[in-house]
Design goal:
- The chain has 340 residues and is of the alpha/beta class.
- It is built from nine helices and twelve strands.
- The chain is 28% helix and 14% strand.
- A seven-stranded mixed beta sheet has the order 1-12-9-8-2-3-4, with helices on both faces.
- The chain is globular, with a radius of gyration of 21 Å.
- The structure holds 2'-O-acetyl adenosine-5-diphosphoribose.
- 2'-O-acetyl adenosine-5-diphosphoribose binds next to loops.
């Protein structure tokens, strides 16, 4: 991973300089599945991600539903399907639900970068589209984190909203939902059966995450109204395709002169109007100073922290990190010139 090429744009230098000289004081971050990839959790839309590896034929669904999921894999996390058949969602998400409860995955350098922004007094708010809970494994205050698409940390009935104790929910998932990834799993049943709400008795209990077609949590709208546009000097976007709204729309709620910095494996954001060329709109004298650092998120973060002289500040967080991030950080530390 260390040999991965890092590509940056010219405007990055002006952003780094402004963080260093204190003219950037308030930073908002928006993250997506790409920041958790080094920890071993696949994203959604990359080759090998959740959507391209979906196998509808293994799921408990009728033929029409299977055909629809083959044509449009996002249906598996859509209210339209869940309200009539809960099994595809629960079967696909089974290992993720059980794994997050055991804290199977650990934070990456991108999560630690957000922590560093907080430690330096620069973090205005952290908007995460991720439901894996990794953002909460560090010491970022909960009120600074907005779980835009909810979280696996809680379970509730999607029909009536009644909460379901997490441990009990995990037990139900383990014993009632079949394991499509391992047919020899002795703990899993061969056929899935319903997990019913204790209050309304509908079989609609699921993690408290947002399905397509459902509303975002009120905290998203409240925090965004507080932050955008005037509480932000820089927006950092990491590991997201910016394909899903309203989260992706946040990039267009900053002032024209507020730079947006993207750290991502692939080029994203151009469709949303991000402009990575350092140029001026001469007619109206408006400047967009967006920047992109292309590469694996551990490596792009290392590039940033080295530029900011913050590399050593990551050391206290090493014990929280996933193995890939630990070794990426060690490699970077070993490359530092040794002091005499
Ligand atoms: P996507 O899978 O759409 O995008 C992940 C982005 O991360 C892509 O642009 C990848 O190129 C990039 N990426 C992958 N691996 C990376 C790595 N190691 N380092 C850096 N970047 C990497 O995931 P999201 O944008 O998070 O919503 O998806 C947004 C929403 O769509 C999710 O919250 C989920 C999904 O459907 C719901 O389920 C409602």
């Amino acid at each position: 991973m260390n040999s991965q090429a890092i590509v940056t744009t010219k405007s990055l230098q002006s952003i780094i300089a402004k963080i260093k000289d204190g003219s950037i004081k308030r930073i908002v971050t928006l993250t997506g599945a790409g920041v958790s990839v080094p920890s071993g959790i696949p994203d959604f839309r990359s080759p090998g991600g959740m959507y391209s590896s979906l196998r509808p034929e293994l799921l408990t669904a009728n033929e029409k539903q299977k055909r629809s999921m083959s044509a449009e894999p996002t249906l598996v996390v859509d209210w339209d399907l869940f309200r009539v058949n809960q099994f595809p969602y629960l079967e696909v998400r089974r290992p993720f639900i059980l794994g997050t409860a055991k804290q199977q995955w650990k934070v990456t350098l991108a999560h630690c970068f957000v922590q560093l922004l907080h430690d330096k007094g620069l973090l205005q708010r952290h908007y995460t589209q991720n439901i894996d809970g990794l953002d909460h494994q560090l010491n970022i205050p909960a009120e600074k984190i907005v779980n835009v698409h909810g979280s696996l940390a809680n379970a509730a009935c999607e029909a009536c909203g009644t909460e379901y104790p997490r441990e009990e929910f995990c037990f139900e998932v383990k014993t009632k939902i079949k394991n499509i990834y391992d047919e020899n799993d002795l703990e899993a049943p061969k056929e899935s059966s319903n997990i019913r709400c204790k209050k309304c008795h509908k079989p609609a209990v699921k993690p408290a995450t947002v399905l397509f077609g459902r509303n975002l949590p009120a905290t998203f709208h409240k925090s965004a109204a507080e932050d955008f546009p005037n509480q932000i000097d820089l927006m950092i976007v990491m590991g997201t395709s910016l394909a899903v709204f309203p989260a992706a729309g946040l990039v267009n709620r900053v002032y024209m002169e507020t730079p947006r910095l993207v750290l991502n494996l692939t080029m994203v954001g151009v469709d949303q109007g991000l402009d990575f060329g350092p140029f001026t709109y001469e007619e109206d004298d408006q400047v967009r100073n967006d920047a992109i650092v292309l590469g694996d998120s551990d490596q792009t973060v290392l590039h940033m922290v080295k530029e900011l002289n913050w590399l050593q500040d990551l050391i206290p967080y090493q014990s929280y990190m996933c193995p890939n991030s630990i070794s990426a950080l060690n490699d970077a530390l070993n490359e530092l010139p040794s002091s005499v």
